[in-house]
Design goal:
By secondary structure, this protein is an alpha/beta fold. It is about 35% helix and about 20% strand.
């Protein structure tokens, strides 16, 4: 991969529906010309009014994510990465610009997304299975279908044998698996993940990276991941969006150029991985110096 080439390095504002389909994963080609992207942000800005001043969290952010694509967001703390996820989920309105899911403008909370946070936020008095099924109760899903889907996800995430365990009986990694199952129960076309593995130890985080990559391939879900880990972003994503310090905007969008099937150890040794990680590190270093 040549980092300077237009095919692998995209400037802010240069992404369109066709380019968004350049990912190498399950959704490659899904955003071809004439097809609405799964997620589309156009000229989005977010401003907050505090007690003493106005704060601009995001400024003129444009990004298209193709159906089935995995896109990671990296940037300095406070640059608006989590704010961007809230916009896509319909939990926050933009001050300017537009946000669309599958071509439809987001005008409020969306039922067709899954959301995974840094903390699993499980109910301590409910078993793993009943925490997963909480999603079904809130959405009033048919009980039998929800139970079948929960069983599929429990098996897919390696939770078999722990279905009846309570949160205090589960490790941090297993709690996050439960949270992931809960988010995927209703088969959302778009999954938003806000630093889901940030609180885990290094070995557990590596294992969860492997599991998430496998699950993404099995489900074909569009994923938008916020992370502070460069290696996590490059290993998991088709493309990595590097954001500037606040007010956050897109500095560059990097196509990592890795094959769809990625063995963790082998991938970390590939030239494409090292080159993409080095470029992101340089951009974040420059941003830190500018800040």
């Amino acid at each position: 991969m040549t980092m300077a080439s237009d095919a692998t390095l995209r400037k802010a504002g240069a992404t369109d529906g066709t380019r968004a389909a350049a990912g190498t994963g399950a959704g490659a080609g899904a955003g071809s010309a004439g097809t609405a992207p799964a997620v589309g942000l156009s000229g989005v800005s977010v401003r907050f009014r505090t007690k003493n001043r106005d704060v601009t969290a995001l400024r003129d952010v444009s990004l298209d994510v193709a159906a089935g694509e995995f896109v990671a967001l990296v940037g300095p703390s406070g640059c608006g990465k989590s704010t961007l996820l809230k916009l896509v989920a319909g939990l926050l309105d933009p001050s300017a610009g537009s946000v669309r899911l599958h071509g439809e403008e987001v005008r409020g909370p969306r039922p067709d997304i899954g959301y995974v946070f840094q903390r699993a936020a499980l109910l301590e008095w409910r078993s793993a299975r009943r925490n997963i099924l909480l999603q079904a109760e809130m959405r009033r899903m048919p009980a039998a279908a929800a139970r079948r889907r929960a069983d599929e996800l429990i098996e897919m995430t390696g939770l078999t044998g722990f279905e009846d365990a309570y949160p205090h009986e589960l490790s941090g990694g297993m709690q996050q698996r439960v949270a992931l199952c809960r988010a995927l129960l209703h088969k959302p076309p778009v999954l938003l993940m806000d630093e889901p593995f940030g609180a885990l130890d290094a070995l557990t985080r590596e294992q969860m990276n492997r599991e998430l990559h496998r699950i993404w391939h099995e489900t074909g879900t569009t994923v938008l991941l916020v992370t502070h880990s460069i290696s996590e972003a490059v290993y998991l994503a088709d493309r990595v969006v590097v954001m500037s310090p606040r007010p956050g905007t897109v500095t560059e969008i990097i196509d990592v150029g890795l094959p769809a099937e990625r063995d963790y150890t082998e991938t970390l040794g590939r030239a494409e991985f090292r080159e993409a990680a080095s470029r992101i590190r340089a951009l974040l270093g420059a941003a830190s110096a500018a800040d």
